């Protein structure tokens, strides 16, 4: 890094075995846990990610009311001429009814 570059903008890494070192894999085996989502079907994966997104929204929009709602329509319902399937995440200010 030269004196004209701001500090913290350059990262120099050895190219050899970078991915293996980044994941913490050694000859003895893995040293870090890597989460893997292995749900049996698409509906369970949707529910898993919906819960994760709801949790993240409650954290990001702390102090606000977070709601998740949807119509729960199945693919068969939509394919057979029904309305669209939707899921909506909202964050709103909590107001007192005075």
Question: What labels would you give this structure?
Answer:
98 residues, alpha+beta, flat, two-stranded antiparallel ribbon
What would your notes on this structure say?
This protein is of the alpha+beta class and 98 residues long. It has one domain. Helix content is 31%, strand content 16%. It contains three helices and four strands; from the N terminus they run H-E-E-H-E-H-E. The chain has helices at residues 18-23, 42-60, 75-79; strands spanning 25-26, 29-30, 65-70, 87-92. It has a two-stranded antiparallel ribbon. A two-stranded antiparallel sheet has the order 3-4. Strand 1 (25-26) and strand 2 form a beta hairpin.
How far do the termini sit from each other?
61 Å
Q: Label the structural class.
A: alpha+beta
What is the percent of helical residues?
Answer: 25-40%
* Average predicted confidence as pLDDT: 76
H/E series: HEEHEHE
Give the helix tally: 3
Order of strands, main sheet, comes to 1-2
* Alpha-carbon Rg, integer: 23 Å
Q: So what's the overall shape?
A: flat
Short structural summary:
By secondary structure, the chain is an alpha+beta fold. The chain has 3 helices and 4 strands, in the order H-E-E-H-E-H-E.
């Amino acid at each position: 890094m030269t004196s004209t570059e701001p500090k913290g903008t350059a990262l120099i890494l050895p190219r050899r075995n970078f991915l293996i070192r980044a994941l913490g894999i050694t000859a003895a085996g893995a040293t870090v846990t890597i989460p893997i989502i292995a749900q049996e079907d698409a509906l369970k994966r949707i529910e898993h990610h919906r819960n994760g997104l709801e949790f993240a929204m409650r954290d990001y929009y702390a102090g606000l009311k977070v709601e998740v709602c949807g119509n729960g329509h199945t693919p068969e319902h939509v394919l057979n001429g029904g309305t669209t399937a939707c899921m909506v995440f909202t964050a709103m200010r909590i107001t007192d009814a005075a």
